[in-house]
Protein: Differentially expressed in FDCP 8 homolog
Organism: Sus scrofa
Amino acid sequence: MAPCLHKHKASSANATELRPARALLPAAPPVPPTAPTPVAEPPASLLPFPPEALPELPPGEPEFRCPERVMDLGLSEDHFARPVGLFLASDVQQLRQAIQECKEAILELPEHSEKQKDAVVRLVHLRLKLQELKDPNEDEPNIRVLLEHRFYKEKSKSVKQTCDKCNTIIWGLIQTWYTCTGCYYRCHSKCLNLISKPCVRSKVSHQAEYELSICPEAGLDSQDYRCAECRAPISLRGVPSEARQCDYTGQYYCSHCHWNDLAVIPARVVHNWDFEPRKVSRGSMRYLSLMVSRPVLRLREINPLLFNYVEELVEIRKLRQDILLMKPYFITCREAMAARLLLQLQDRQHFVENDEMYSVQDLLDTHSGRLGCSLAETHTLFAKHIKLDCERCQAKGFVCELCREGDVLFPFDSHTSVCADCSAVFHRDCYYDNSTTCPRCARLTLRKQSLFQEPCPDVDA
């Protein structure tokens, strides 16, 4: 142990002798601690919202303001314009502030300008987002409202569906999914917040009309080589995504927005009487499904020559005209109102209102022959009530004033003619043989003249 101790002392002595050699080097001056460089706060005029709108940070946390919390409403392409509202606002108070700012911007913008229209659209989206963040007790727990969609939580676990957003299978046993009660849009619960297209039913309610040009194609260049719905890049070569054309709109879509669904195109029906299904996008498919029963087609104006080539349409038009002539009998008949005979056409209410408007479903059923058969049965039922079953309706018939022979006539009989002025009913042959004047019109004219004729003044007076 002694040698080790001696060795340790020797090493310590050597270390002591070397220390003065280090003192020969010039000593560096001490460096003072540097203070953190202050970050200049932006002026209040450049902030998109007042400073008090920022959430308070917990003590000890560094102050950091994320630019993503600012919403640029896109009211103009001037990037130096002041943005209005909050983009990723997470609470009700911030959304209400953004709505108020958007209202003020709408009032300041020029009337009927494009910027004002864009601001109104942003205001609608902000209100919808505010509705989503409200207390869930205000709405049903299984209902989600998003972009005018009203999603209902499905309870079926065995039905296999496909998500309209991500284009993948919905496994009902292990996944939660929703269906829009308006347009029947189906998606996973995780895909709800990714939906960017509003409900198609809103368009049907406000703008119920068809595109009546056959496949109005404008070309991929007019779409900037992007999907017409989701704006994803597409091309005819399939790189990066295949471009699929919708035969209804004429536009091109990606494979996520166009599933090669088949639908009858209204423009091809009214112009060519062509009922062959064509490939359409998902949005067009939902729109056509909601519009199929709406009577918005006035065939006499769109294609009046169609009645010259389609005999079924002529028969349908004659039956509809007869039903309109029967309607006054039912409105004034207690038995008919009690039996609710007019409800026989409750699925086609426009048949008891006019004879000009048609729906696509009417044309489909006319082409298949179902509408002609069902409408003929209804016509027979109505005529039986008026001519045989009801004495009050029989008493409202007509007798031909030209020949004064034959049975009681009604305006919907096939062998009769109706005067366009007084609605009197005659035998068709009698009416055309004596077409100079209508005896009822002549009698009514004489009666009016006698009523309005001034009395002769008294000579003695």
About this structure: The two ends are 172 Å apart (CA to CA).
